[in-house]
Write a structure and sequence with these properties.
The chain is an alpha+beta fold. The chain has 3 domains: 196 residues, Aldehyde oxidase/xanthine dehydrogenase, molybdopterin binding domain (Aldehyde Oxidoreductase, domain 4, 2-Layer Sandwich), CATH 3.30.365.10; 153 residues, 2-Layer Sandwich (Aldehyde Oxidoreductase, domain 4), CATH 3.30.365.10; 297 residues, Aldehyde oxidase/xanthine dehydrogenase, molybdopterin binding domain (Aldehyde Oxidoreductase, domain 4, 2-Layer Sandwich), CATH 3.30.365.10. The protein is 28% helix and 22% strand. The chain contains 19 helices and 31 strands. The strands form 8 sheets. Strands 12-13-10-20-17-18-19 form a 7-stranded mixed β-sheet, with helices on both faces. A 6-stranded mixed β-sheet has the order 5-4-3-2-1-9. Strands 24-23-22-15-31 form a 5-stranded mixed β-sheet, with helices on both faces. The longest helix is centred in the first third of the chain and has 28 residues. The chain is globular, with a radius of gyration of 27 Å.
Amino acid sequence: MPLNRSVSESGSAKSGGASTGVSRRGFLGYVLAAGTLVVAADIRLGTPAYAAVPSPPQPPELYDLNDALTDAALPTAQLITITVESDGTASFAIPRMEVGQGITTSTAMIIAEELDLPVDKVRVTLAPARPELLFNQLTGGSNTTISTFTPVRVAAAIAKRQLLEAAAIELGSTVARLESKAGVITAPDGSSATYGELATKAAARDTKQVTITPEQLKATGDFQVVGKPQNRVDARDIITGKKQFAMDLDIPGALPTMICRPPTLNGSPKAIRNAAAVLSLPGVTDVAVITTGVAVRAETFGQCIDAVRALDVDWGPGSVEGEDDESILAGLRKAELPLAVPKVPALARHIDADFEFMFRSSAALEPYAAVADVRSDGAEIWAGLKSPIVAQGEVAEALGLPQTKVKVNVVTGGGSFGHKLFGDHAVEAARASKAFGKPVRLMWHRADEPRQGRVHPMATSRIRATYLAGNVLTFEQRHTSVETSFRHGLGEMLTAVATKLPSGVGNLGIAESIFALSQELPYDFGVVTQTLTETDQRFNTGSMRNIYSPDVACANELVVDMLAKAMGKDPLAFRLGFLKNDRVKAVLRKVAEVGGWGRKMPAGTAQGIAVHKEYKGATACLVEIDCRPETVNRKIRDGVAGPRVTKAVIAIDAGLVINPRGLEAQMMGCFTDGLALALTGSLHLRDGHFLEASWDNYFYTRQWNVPPDFTAIAMPSSGDQPGGAGEAGVACSVAAVACAYARATGKVPKRFPINHDDPIGFEVKSFIPPVPESPTDGLSWTY
């Protein structure tokens, strides 16, 4: 969730898309005193301020969450530097976290474009926690490329200009007559110099301020790298095992460490009854009580698991003792605000709809993992962290150290989906290391993730729409949810502390702001109101991919289909008739064309279509679903069957497209998330704990759920500013699957995922011990 805003010539944000240019005032930047060329961008003075939000009913049309995130990043943009090394490469430590979304690749492409370097000559690494960056080191909200695009381009342009000026002296020419290509600057007489040869000559002895005008940035029409398909720069390392994640780091003395966790949600340890016996187990070196459980350290993770299973702990109560799905849902119902529009307005008709969204796990492929080395005078942490400044402060607080004595290294993560916005794993590793007086390599067990980890909250969404004479007069939505925690703040400690105010007041303020700045109904439906009510702070929650939008958009698009049916309209034609934005219409038409909307299908099967507008762009999805009994009741080994999506087409308009190949991959991941949210992926709360444990019984989309016919479409670039992509396709995917299910069965689903109330399709693992035995027959479970 970094903070950024597109910069336009007028300073005004245009409804429906990214801004279209950069300020005529130009950009300030710096050439920093250093041994080789080091440059920084400062785009603050080139950014006209926004006017007050005008009166249209939905703020995101004028100023959305990405605008807020980008604006917050601007004050420290000049602290982000690009270095040209003596070997001719350019290096950049991006103050964001790579979690699989491909930002190291897309950022390398942006730098390569502006510097006239090959992509393989650009080195993008992850910056450690830098408190001076304030709001500028938060990864989330699909905002990374939106917020860093202009600062990175400006810094690269400054570097290129310095290199050209140095080359003009070296080659006896003028800057205007020089040509730069692939890291080499050539004069008209054929003489040349490489960037590496010029790096020290272009370096400044003293820091100096420079100005870059928009004309000195490369025109989008001249791009040779940006907009062209590019494989990930780290792809080979990933598939060969060379890529290093937290658990791959070789930190001296850091032995495997795991936590024995309580049987109910957020329980706490009182005492260990058999510490000596556990310490005598093979390989076990340390056992200690920490805040969240009992930490054990051993020579291998297998030995840690054996120790966790052997522990006899006296546990205190959890935060939701005795609660279950229905009791939490009843609490939400009590908190719901009444609908304001009268139920039977004069002459008009109405549609009332009520939807329920159950708890869902947002665990990533990589479990929580962190390495910690805590000493009496300081600490060093290595972990995947999307809010490293906040994590640094929380680790310091937990250890009783000044924040300046804690070094936090950001490591590439194997996914996030909201989990790694929080530093839970870093704090836990630090506590264990302090308790043992030794370095630790902490890893959560797979069973820990759904039972004690961050979850997407249970929610209800109620809608009342009124219509008359072919027009929708009002559309009212009341979204009520278990609290979504934003206690990571906006990436720095001040807002993080503010969100922890008593009674959830601080967190609610941020939650309501994020909801208001992200939710937009893209239809001309008269008076539109969308409100958020949050209650119940007892769960560990977070901003699962796309935050509120999957639930909100799913409810909205189902009602759009209901309105179309009530008015006797085709769902596609109805949407095209009421959509306000041409970019949304374009992606909708594209999926309808590619997916063959309206084709005749057998009974029990159907198409569904849906749109979503967010992140300075637009997405649409078309699916075909098979709800026939022979499909729903098919046997799946160690999984669940149910309806099968057989075809999916998803399209995105993301403004200026940096890497079409990466964008298509993002849409594939978004659709996979949306499919699980609609059909199979949920947590069941029973007697104060979640039943699911590990991926074998949390039914995220599997190979047998994936549609055999899948197409992802990156629309041609629109405008010269990028939009967000990492989360953009989730909401329309959930909604399209739900709409297809309703059309195939003739019944609008009310509870999601659709199979939540089916009989539990797995054997529930024990709660004491909290983890299963280490497997010894892994090969027999391969396909």
